[in-house]
């Protein structure tokens, strides 16, 4: 996700004796943060003092000082303005000039919020709170009444950032890519429909996770997935070693068309889950154990033996299971080229499913999204929070990288 710039400036320090002077009249500490309390008054006074200083610079002389007669511009009274900030609403006085050319930097014209207020709204939105929830929270925390329209306008500004992020350049190689989906409810033409939000999570050469993009699909299929991976290719992604995917219709074919050297690995967790759909409850534990023998086998030939034994044992009752595994066999076997500890990295989409679990907590609060754009806003902001925790490489990354260097020697960057 997008990194925030760090503040490299120096912090101002306030002399302790100045703070003592300001607080000596304060006999009740609880009044410091109370409505209309000292901190709110101090904030308003500091803003007004800064605006006066800006006007001094703009006119070229201090208040009550000698005017610059060459410009013909002088102070021309003031206007009142109500700011929304962390201390609630603050009434301030803004100086004016005769030529109406004064453009304050601290509080620009038509701006009614102190810096940081928008960020608080976006932080609440990113945690899955609805517009109405945020309205109530802001009222409770800051004593400020903000309209749902105001909150929507603040979050609307995120869409430009989403578009830039969705089209940003990518690395030329991601050794592993995981693809999965999340179902959300969206209002469309006065109907509420289930929409699949598809996520592509990449692991770079340093073992760091990165969400490459997200797409709301109308019709899942090879054509849709071809457009998704064409987009990724156009953004700079030229090679993939292993693509670990769920059994999404048309996805393996699309990857193999655009990345013919990539190995498409079906997620074994999903394969087992889909297999157990056909099994009665009393047999599920036994069937799952027999399936584990297949995908945990030491070699492909051993796995084939276990699949044949599975078919002999269960085809009379559940013939569709072995048929499904045989049909998808070419996308089951890539994992057998790697040792057991590396397989855990590549044979399951757990890495992206943990992302989906976090996102579900956020999207569950919204229940029904008013539009596709609302989905993108919420998920993007939530992902920004999730990505902050991605500080370490994925588990077993160094051994996996060494295996990749041997297995994909000609394509492995040196």
TrEMBL record:
Q: InterPro entries in the record, alphabetically?
A: Transposase_mutator
Q: Reply yes or no: does the keyword DNA-binding apply.
A: yes
The source's superkingdom equals Bacteria
Q: Which residues form a coiled coil?
A: none
The UniProt entry's sequence similarity note says:
Belongs to the transposase mutator family.
PANTHER family (alphabetical): MUTATOR FAMILY TRANSPOSASE (PTHR33217:SF5), TRANSPOSASE FOR INSERTION SEQUENCE ELEMENT IS1081 (PTHR33217)
The record describes the protein's role as: Required for the transposition of the insertion element.
What's the protein called, per UniProt?
Answer: Mutator family transposase
Q: What organism does the record attribute this protein to?
A: Dictyobacter vulcani
């Amino acid at each position: 996700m997008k990194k925030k710039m760090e503040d490299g400036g120096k912090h101002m320090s306030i002399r302790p004796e100045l703070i003592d002077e300001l607080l000596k009249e304060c006999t009740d500490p609880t009044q410091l943060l109370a409505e209309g309390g000292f901190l709110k008054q101090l904030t308003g006074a500091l803003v007004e003092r800064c605006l006066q200083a800006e006007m001094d610079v703009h006119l070229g002389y201090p208040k009550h000082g000698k005017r610059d007669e060459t410009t013909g511009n002088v102070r021309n009274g003031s206007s009142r303005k109500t700011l929304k900030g962390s201390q609630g609403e603050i009434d301030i006085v803004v100086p004016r000039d005769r030529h109406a050319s004064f453009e304050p930097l601290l509080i620009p014209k038509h701006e009614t919020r102190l810096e940081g207020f928008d960020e608080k709204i976006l932080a609440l939105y990113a945690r899955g709170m609805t517009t109405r929830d945020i309205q109530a929270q802001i009222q409770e925390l800051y004593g400020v009444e903000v309209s749902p329209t105001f909150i929507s306008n603040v979050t609307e500004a995120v869409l430009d950032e989403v578009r830039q992020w969705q089209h940003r350049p990518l690395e030329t190689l991601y050794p592993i890519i995981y693809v999965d989906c999340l179902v959300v409810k969206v209002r469309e033409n006065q109907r509420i429909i289930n929409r699949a939000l598809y996520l592509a999570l990449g692991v770079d050469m340093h073992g760091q996770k990165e969400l490459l993009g997200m797409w709301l699909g109308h019709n899942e299929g090879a054509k849709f997935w071809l457009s998704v991976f064409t987009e990724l290719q156009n953004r700079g992604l030229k090679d993939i070693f292993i693509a670990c995917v769920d059994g999404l219709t048309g996805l393996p074919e699309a990857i193999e068309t655009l990345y013919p050297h990539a190995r498409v690995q079906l997620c074994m967790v999903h394969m087992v889950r889909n297999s157990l759909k056909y099994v009665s409850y009393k047999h599920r534990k036994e069937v799952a154990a027999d399936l584990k023998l297949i995908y945990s086998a030491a070699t492909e030939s051993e796995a084939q033996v276990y699949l044949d034994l599975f078919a002999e044992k269960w085809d009379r009752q559940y013939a569709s299971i072995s048929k499904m595994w045989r049909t998808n066999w070419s996308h089951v076997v890539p994992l057998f080229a790697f040792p057991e500890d590396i397989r855990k990295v590549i044979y399951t989409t757990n890495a992206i499913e943990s992302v989906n679990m976090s996102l579900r907590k956020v999207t569950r609060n919204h229940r029904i999204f008013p539009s596709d754009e609302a989905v993108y806003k919420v998920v993007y902001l939530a992902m920004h929070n999730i990505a902050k925790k991605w500080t370490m490489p994925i588990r077993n990354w160094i051994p996996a990288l060494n295996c990749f260097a041997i297995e994909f020697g000609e394509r492995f960057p040196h």
